[in-house]
């Protein structure tokens, strides 16, 4: 490779880096502007937030409750609380992280409400099995097939998984969902659950270990 070619390649790499930095700046500016619109109480901005985030919030709440009606109600409650509190949002955390924190708090409150009335909560979620990064959903997908016998076996395994997951402590379940289903980093989980990173890692490890113990001999 000639000296001129090396310069050309280095120049191109530098240009690409500048372009990426510029895009990040644009996104940051756009997000800041969107947040300001939300804090001013613009209906259109909040409608956009709901449209963009409803699917994510509903999915999270369904995994926490395993109940479509509960998840739907809690999703609405989450956005209502967000609307009421958006003026106090300082932007210290990502907007998505803030919304997830509200959603999880709503799920916790609902669970406490049912518990006070002596009703058992049913919970289901996609979570990793054992100490690997493979999730429950991945394992279920691997077992599904067109063959009726295989589908019946998959349903039986899914039932066993759900029973095991339902018996996990909620603190473990939350950590597993955010890490292995939602793909949050440890830092994002810590911010969402308002914990330190060490506690997040500990809960995640214990949740996976507990799940593995419950499923021993089932797979």
Summarize the SSE layout with pairings.
Blueprint: H1 3-39, H2 43-65, H3 68-85, H4 95-116, H5 136-143, H6 148-166, H7 170-181, H8 186-193, H9 197-215
Helix pairs in contact: 2-3, 2-4, 3-4, 4-8, 7-9, 8-9
Explained architecture:
With 219 residues, the protein is mostly helical. It has 3 domains: 1-40; 41-122, Rna Polymerase Sigma Factor, Chain: A (Orthogonal Bundle); 123-219, Winged helix-like DNA-binding domain superfamily/Winged helix DNA-binding domain (Arc Repressor Mutant, subunit A, Orthogonal Bundle). Helices cover 76% and strands 0% of the residues. α4 packs across α8 and α7 packs across α9. It starts with a helix and ends with a helix.
Rg over CA atoms, rounded to whole Å, is 22 Å
Query: Please, what is the average pLDDT?
Result: 76
Domain unit count: 3
CATH topology of the largest domain: Arc Repressor Mutant, subunit A
Structural class: mainly alpha
Q: What's the count of strands?
A: 0
CATH superfamily membership of the largest domain: Winged helix-like DNA-binding domain superfamily/Winged helix DNA-binding domain
Which sequence of SSEs, written as H and E, runs from N to C?
Answer: HHHHHHHHH
- What is the number of helical segments per DSSP (H or I, 4+ residues)? 9
> Briefly, what CATH class of the largest domain?
Mainly Alpha
Distance between the termini: 55 Å
Please mark out the parts with pLDDT under 50 across 5 or more consecutive residues, or reply none: 2-10, 18-27, 118-131
- The amount of helix comes to over 70%
Cα shape: globular
- The appropriate CATH architecture of the largest domain is Orthogonal Bundle
Give the DSSP E fraction (strand runs of 2 or more residues): under 5%
Main sheet overview? none
């Amino acid at each position: 490779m000639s000296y001129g070619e090396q310069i050309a390649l280095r120049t191109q790499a530098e240009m690409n880096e500048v372009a990426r930095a510029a895009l990040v700046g644009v996104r940051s500016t756009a997000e800041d502007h969107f947040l300001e619109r939300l804090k001013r109480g613009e209906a259109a901005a909040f409608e956009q937030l709901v449209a963009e985030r409803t699917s994510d919030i509903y999915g999270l709440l369904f995994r926490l409750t395993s109940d479509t009606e509960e998840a739907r109600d809690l999703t609405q409650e989450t956005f209502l609380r967000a609307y009421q509190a958006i003026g106090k949002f300082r932007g210290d955390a990502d907007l998505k992280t803030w919304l997830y924190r509200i959603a999880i708090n709503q799920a916790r409150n609902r669970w406490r409400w049912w518990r006070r009335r002596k009703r058992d909560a049913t919970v289901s979620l996609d979570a990793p099995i054992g100490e690997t990064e493979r999730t429950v959903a991945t394992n279920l997908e691997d077992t599904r097939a067109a063959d009726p016998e295989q589908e019946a076996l998959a349903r039986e395994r899914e039932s066993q998984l759900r029973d095991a997951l339902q018996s996990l402590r909620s603190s473990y379940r939350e950590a597993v969902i955010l890490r292995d289903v939602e793909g949050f980093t440890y830092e994002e989980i810590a911010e969402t659950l308002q914990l330190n990173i060490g506690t997040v890692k500990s809960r995640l490890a214990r949740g996976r270990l507990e799940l593995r113990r419950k499923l021993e001999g089932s797979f």
